[in-house]
Amino acid sequence: MKKLVRNTLMIAALVASLGFYSCGDNKDKKEDATKVMDHEMEDDMKSDSLAVDSTEEVIDVQFKETTTAAVFEHYIHIKNALVASSTADAQKHSKLLQESLLEANAEQSLLDATMQLAEATDINKQREAFSKVTKGMELVLDGTIASGQVYKQFCPMAFEGKGDYWYTNTEEIRNPYFGEMMLKCGRIEEVLN
Length: 193
Prior knowledge:
By secondary structure, this protein is mainly alpha-helical. It has helices spanning 2-23, 33-46, 66-83, 87-103, 108-119, 123-141, 158-161, and strands at 62-63, 145-147, 150-155, 164-168, 187-192.
């Protein structure tokens, strides 16, 4: 009986380790899978709240135009709301983003995606709309950074393994597509400056 329990626990640990490994940064492939699992479990136990850590280092980024700065600020608030799985905050900031996008004469597809996000009351629908907003943000951010950096991050597990991107002003991974389920799942794909 003890052997069966031990084998079951070992298999469960192996499966969990592979899950964390497939979602990790993969820069240090030599790191032991059990250490990764232990680290993730410690982080989850330390934080019952999913609000963005106050210890998170936010990079100061300046834009060439104030309209772009406002757009990016609202986008970051939406990302943080989705990290915290707050549908109400995501809706509120989506409406503010839409106003800023209108002022910036953004493309209609980005306005439509932002409207979908603002109207959605289901967190999964908001995350789907956020994916579309992120695609549109690429055109907004391209060539507009005066100083600082914006990080384009990627989660390979988002949307049933298809993966997806988001932008942020911090190196720290805070996944808007999974919230508490996989808070640190992702990696930096590109640094815009």
